[in-house]
Amino acid sequence: MTGNNNTHSIILGYIAWAFGIFGAHRFYYGKPITGVIWAFTLGVLLVGWIIDIFLIPAMDEECNQRYRSGPIDYNVTWILFVFLGVFGVHRFFMGKWITGLIWLATGGLVGIGWIYDLLTLNEQIDEANREMAAGYE
What we know:
The protein is mainly alpha-helical. It has helices at about 10-20, 25-30, 30-45, 45-65, 75-85, 90-95, 95-110, 110-135. The relative contact order is 0.14.
């Protein structure tokens, strides 16, 4: 992709790293499998978590190449998800009104939908940004 495609904030990545023994930074950077591994092994007994402090710039650059920027900001969506995700606020922000209302009424489908979004949020944002870009062309 050409031009400025800074989809994820490296500062937010380091903030998520502070909670990285639970895999937060790995989920943020679109690595759900290792995020789950980190969550269940406390960052692979803290060793992988410490190594990740040096890997965050590469993970950030990989996201900038992998995901498309657009009107739906990844950072804002992730912040909304972390603090208000069980209420579906991030889904309203992405323009998913129906599922946002379902999340609001059911507590993120009793947490199961919240876990789904944790694992797929970057892909959902990327897809929405690509659809919006195709609609503008």
